[in-house]
Amino acid sequence: MSLSLYQVDSFTNRPFAGNPAGVCLLDSPRPDEWMLGVAGEMNLSETAFLLPEDGFYRLRWFTPMVEVTLCGHATLACAHILWEQGFLASNQTALFETLSGRLQAVRTPDGWIALNFPGRPVEPVVSPEGLLESLGLNNALFVGKYREDYLVEVQNEPIVRALEPNFVSMRKLKTRGVVVTAQCDQGEYDFVSRFFAPAVGVDEDPVTGSAHCALTPYWSKKLGKPTLMAYQASPRGGQLRVRPQEDRVILEGQALTVYSATLLV
Fold it and tell me: In the chain, which ranges are E strands?
């Protein structure tokens, strides 16, 4: 039996930018090994698998190497497909049951998609041996940790953009990933970031929704702003509109479908 498969560029309003995600619509549960195989075939940072249940969708995310517990750009891609392909009416809320609990997405009045995700408090830590060195940094303004990732704040935006990490060294760290960030001094964005996760097969993620679950409360508190514009400065680049909401965060972005296909195996 064939299955529908899509590739969506998330957190962008133009093709071949933002973060591409695979979206596979399932008709029944599939083994983990099969989903991992499809993710490897897609060779994207994440491929999402959607299974309709009673009033919601069961959602799982896989990199080409492992299953992950939270993925923003692939969730955005799923919501986009459900509305675009008519599985949900444009005014319906997309509900997802995931390893990170119940998530939801809605359409905003200006046509963006708003994701309601769990916030990730950042706790200051002593920089572990090799972390700054793997990033090519001599020092940092702040080093913190949220769940399985590190957050590193540096002095300015040009430092973030110029980073050339040593991924071989980074793979030796006991962490899933590292987000490096700085305040933007001018322009339309409040802060900039990049995210590296070679330990799970993604040297640099183009745009990382889950990282903004930590970046949003971190920068909102630091800058004293309830709503912020964020830019992830990967080679593809992507933008988000974010705000904290109690212990949750609202991540807003745009998306477009690049292609649709039929999975035959």
Answer: 3-10, 19-25, 46-52, 57-62, 67-68, 94-98, 101-107, 113-118, 123-124, 142-146, 149-153, 177-183, 191-197, 202-205, 228-232, 238-245, 248-253, 255-263
